[in-house]
Structure formats: structure tokens, C-alpha cells
């Protein structure tokens, strides 16, 4: 750590994470390992930005000349309107998880879509093609997951969210994202659809606070033929991942998606190919 601090100078470029909370995040460990491996004079720091402070934080990025940022819970949707531009995928999804400061403008991108599909392909070569999918959540992360599933020709996507109106609105938007049928689910329909789904994804922030030991998706009807992905990760398996593993299902927490979305963000900030193996290894230290 001392050696690393001694390398920081007045030329060092700053990339940050804007989220709330951020204490759990492994992004600083992973991205600083990547910068160090490629001897880039850049540092990555996490900033806990309360919802009311987001626009000031984005303005701060400009005044401080930050190279860029990642954006996470709960800012992915709100940040879109604070930037100078966003690429077509981020605009379609309505969520940004990566900001690049090109010198004059802050430009938003969404690397969650590619990150989610890369993680899914680790457990199923064909990706989402032909699958019936259940997604919990309707925030920025869920929007990226649903866009990825539609782009990858999933057969159906059922969206359950605590606030039903957000699920309804996500499904209405997703109607134009391809041939995939997207329907909102009520809480009463949830247990039966858990049993019917081939792929189950938690894209809510439940479990981010490691003290919270609940799953937003009922786990009693899981079975071994399913694929279960929880975008949340922590030192121990989440309730959902633990229950899925106990049935023999293929289960992934959010680490692989974290690595793959960060790899795409790294390309955007540096123009270089990311050291993915180093990034993955850094998470186990
Ligand atoms: P992000 O953009 O990173 O997805 P977000 O927009 O704050 O962050 O979305 C968080 C998601 O987690 C939402 O779907 C939220 O549900 P609401 O739309 O009802 O707020 C969901 N979520 C957060 N805390 C939850 C909880 N305790 N129980 C169930 N869902 C929760």
C-alpha cells in the first residue's frame, strides 16, 4: 500500500465510483490492480454520494477533471440526465454505469448489458436464447439485464418489482427491444413463475448490506435444472445463491458480471485491453 501511495503524483488520473452505499464495493480493489498491472498512472476511488448530492458530484467530476467514473445503486437512471451525452445503448436502456470525461464533455455508457451476457455465457454457451426468465428489480441494473435478455433472444421475461409501477414501465419500454415477450408479475404470481423459469436473476439491491439475509425471490421452488444469477455479491453467498447451489442449480453471484462490466469500462477509459485475469484474481485476495 505504501509503495502504491508513493506512486501517486500530481499527474495521476482519477476514476471514481458514484454510489450509495459503496463500502461493500470491490471495484476499487479490482481496478487499482488493473491500473498497477498495466503501469497506468491512474487511481480508482469509491465515493459515497447521497441521492440529493448526485448532480453536485457530477459537476465535481468536471471541475476536478476526473477521467471518468462508474455509477451504481441508486444513481444509474438519474445520472443520464446530468451528462452531456450518452451512447445509443445507454439511451435505449435508460441507465448509465460508466462515464467518460473526454475533456469537454461527460459521456455515458452502459457496460452492464455486455457484462451480464458475458457472465451468463460462462454457465450457458448459447446465452439467453430461448429461455424463460424471471428478473427481480426494475432499477437501472434490471433495465440492463432485461435489455440483454431481449437482445439475446430470450423467449419470455417476467419482471417482478416491489414497486409494481416500475416493473410495468420497464416492460412497456422493453416491448420495442426485440421479439421477447416481457410481462410484469404480481407478488402472488411469483412462486409459480419461480418454478416455471429457466433463468432467475436478482437485479435488486437486496443483500448489498451484508447484514440483510433475505432473498427478494422466494427460494422454495428452485430446482436443479435452473440457472440463478444474483447481481449482488459479498464475502459469503447470498441467500438466493446459497439456496440455488443447495438444489444443484448453476448459480453465480455478481462477481463475474462485476469483472466483465469493469473490463468494458476500462477499455472506454484507457483505450487498452484490460488485464481480466488480474482483475478476477484481485477479488479473491
Ligand atoms: P440500480 O439503478 O442500481 O438498479 P435502483 O434504481 O435504486 O438501483 O434500483 C434498486 C432496485 O432494488 C429497485 O428495483 C428496488 O425496488 P423499488 O423500485 O421498489 O425501490 C429494489 N429494492 C431495493 N431495496 C429493496 C427491498 N428492500 N426490497 C425489495 N426490493 C428492493
Look at the structure and give the mean pLDDT: 95
Gyration radius from CA atoms, angstroms: 19 Å
Order of strands, main sheet, comes to 2-1-3-5-6-4
- The sequence of SSEs as H and E is HEHEHEEHEEHEHEHEHEEHEHH
Helix content: 25-40%
- Tally of separate helices: 11
Unreliable stretches: none
Give the amount of beta strand, in percent. 15-25%
Which tags fit this structure?
285 residues, alpha/beta, 6-stranded mixed beta sheet, 6-stranded parallel beta sheet, 12 strands, 38% helix, globular, binds 2'-monophosphoadenosine-5'-diphosphate
What does this 3D model show about the protein?
The chain is built from eleven helices and twelve strands. The two termini are 14 Å apart. Helix 2 packs across helix 11, helix 5 (112-123) packs across helix 6 (140-151) and helix 5 (112-123) crosses helix 10 (255-270). The mean pLDDT is 95. The protein has 285 residues and is α/β, with parallel strands linked by helices. A hairpin with a 4-residue loop joins strand 5 (98-101) and strand 6 (106-109). It has helices at residues 2-7, 27-37, 54-64, 88-93, 112-123, 140-151, 164-174, 190-196, 239-247, 255-270, 276-282, and strands at residues 13-19, 42-48, 68-71, 85-86, 98-101, 106-109, 132-136, 156-160, 181-185, 199-202, 227-230, 250-252. Strands 2-1-3-5-6-4 form a six-stranded mixed beta sheet, sandwiched between helices. 2'-monophosphoadenosine-5'-diphosphate (ATR) is lined by residues 72-74, 76-77, 137-142, 161-163, 166, 204-206, 216.
